[in-house]
Amino acid sequence: MASLRSTRWFGLTDKDGFIHRSWMKNQGFPPHLFDGRPVIGICNTFSELVPCNAHFRQIAERVKRGVYEAGGFPLEFPVMSLGETNLRPTAMLFRNLVSMDVEESIRGNPIDGVVLLCGCDKTTPSLVMGAASCDLPAIVVSGGPMLNGNFRGQAIGSGTAVWQMSEDVRAGKMQLADFMDAEVCMSRSAGHCMTMGTASTMASMVEALGMGLPQNAAIPAVDSRRYVLAHQAGRRIVEMVHENLKISRILTREAFENAIRVNAAIGGSTNAVIHLLAIAGRVGVKLHLDDFDRLGHQLPLLVDLMPSGQFLMEDFYYAGGIPAVVCELGDLIHDVLTVNGKTMRANTADAPCWNRKVIHAFSEPIKEHAGIAVLHGNLAPNGAVIKPSAATARLLKHRGRAVVFESIEDLKARTDLPDLDIDENSVMVLKGAGPRGYPGMPEVGNMPLPRKLLERGITDIVRISDARMSGTAYGTVVLHVSPESAIGGPLALVRNGDVIELDVEARRLDLCVSDDELAARRAAWIAPPPAASGGYQRLYVDHVMQADQGADLDFLMGCRGAGVPRESH
Ligand code: FES
To answer: How far is CA 101 from CA 136, 139, 272, 369, in A?
Structure first.
């Protein structure tokens, strides 16, 4: 076998080799670890500020055991970690920054293969994007979901319960003290959100892409089998290095098609659209926004998890997890190679389902045609998305009067005003929440309903924006309108009282205003000042692409490989 990449550091006998080895030896590593064996990077997103990933030191230790056992040399390294619950203005603003951190950390160091420890929403796409741009062997180990939330005998789901209960408080149906009591009942163990939110969705996408071992997505964080999986991943990455099984052999067009179909069947997050587009862009796979509709929309919803359904990730694991879903999808899934060296079919062909209430048979789905729908029309020339499985069926075809909020501040200031001119047939429109405008495209698309509607018992109206929505959220919410309002997309031209027509079956989203009137409004439109004046945020707003292209930075597209021609001294 040809010598490994790491031998160009640790295999040298000159001053550079001395430098590379000597300083490493201050950690107590014996000489035999530098003998040319595979060096495995463990890319760790541990942070106490990212509660979903706070148990990752223990996961990393189990990966190390597996690496040592298989004859490798594990070296753990940190990268910036992104938590949804604390980071302002939105973790999405930093997804691309972390991908750069990951890419340069891998490329610049003596690493032959890498284990990516992913958990909270953006930590998965950012690590996969960065690793994909280097194209070394890589395997994802997800941190796993929290145990089911339980509040006074009722299962409650991360995020989903927050949206529901906060509206109940605003509607006067729940006391504030009870609301606060629910905090620790919802988040009661290590792990990430246990609804089919974005973290669970992206862990599922990792498995569907073939980038993780079977059952990577669903094993709870505190289940001993999560540690077994981490241990096995450590063993397997060493073999992958020997087999030269690089990411580009896993992340094929067929793998992305599998991921899109699995996302439809599990009722996955709309955020998967943006992240899969961005990952595909790093490996040069041509994936288009419309592929999500073409490949996914006709598929039925098979998994009954919140926010689209009633169960949680712990139930999903006990019912059979992603292998059982892939098994149900049968020939709709391409038989591609996965990181364990076996094909998708070999991994899933006989996967059992232990609970048909949680994972339905393909012949008896929860809902037909439940995959993400991609809308076009004069309000979204480059597309917008909606998740029909989380929407109100009667609102999927709707004509209503726009109630426009020019910014998130405007929304917060006016939503609950008693004289807000809004009713159940209105369409809430939010501007300035796209990639460039906010900046960072936050999860504010599921705008809270005005109190005056909640008090009347109204639980959903059509909402439209250039923002994203938490994967744990629900409602008739049109997201990712592209181009965004901050760069003069038609969303910027909507005014109070305009009629908007949504027709999900026809895939249309239209502003019923004449072309002449729109041209006049466009001529009078004044672009907002840049959302950032310096630092990383300036780099971001200058280079971020639109949602329909994955919102990556334009100069980060593509695979740059792992070569580094120059020494450091
Ligand atoms: Fe981290 Fe939901 S907040 S996964």
So the answer is: 16, 18, 21, 39
Q: Which residue among 87, 158, 162 is best mutated to probe the pocket of ligand 1, counting the most ligand atoms within 8 A of its Cβ? A: 158
> Does 271 sit in the ligand 1 pocket, CB within 6 Å?
no
Regarding the beta carbon of 537 and ligand 1, being less than 6 Å apart is answered no
Sheet holding 138-142, edge to edge: 73-78, 39-44, 113-118, 138-142
Composition of the chain by helix, strand, coil, percent to 5: 40, 15, 45
> Ligand 1: distance of its center to the CA of 120 in Å?
5
d(CA 521, CA 516): 9
Radius of gyration of the chain (CA): 24
pTM confidence score: 0.97
Which of these, 281, 284, 277, 252, lies nearest to 263 by C-alpha position?
277
CA gap 549, 275 in Å, rounded: 10
- State in Å: Cα 402 to ligand 1 middle: 32
pLDDT tens for each residue of the chain, 569 residues long = 578 999 999 999 999 999 999 999 999 999 999 999 999 999 999 999 999 999 999 999 999 999 999 999 999 999 999 999 999 999 999 999 999 999 999 999 999 999 999 999 999 999 999 999 999 999 999 999 999 999 999 999 999 999 999 999 998 999 999 999 999 999 999 999 999 999 999 999 999 999 999 999 999 999 999 999 999 999 999 999 999 999 999 999 999 999 999 999 999 999 999 999 999 999 999 999 999 999 998 999 999 999 989 999 999 999 999 999 999 999 999 999 999 999 999 999 999 999 999 999 999 999 998 899 999 999 999 999 999 988 999 999 999 999 999 999 999 999 999 999 999 999 999 999 999 999 999 999 999 999 999 999 999 999 999 999 988 888 999 999 999 999 999 999 999 999 999 999 999 999 999 999 999 999 999 999 988 889 999 999 999 999 999 999 999 999 999 999 899 99
Which protein residue's CA is at the shortest distance from atom 2 of ligand 1?
193
Task: Count other Cβ atoms within 10 Å, centred on residue 512.
Answer: 12
Residue with tokens 């541990």: 46
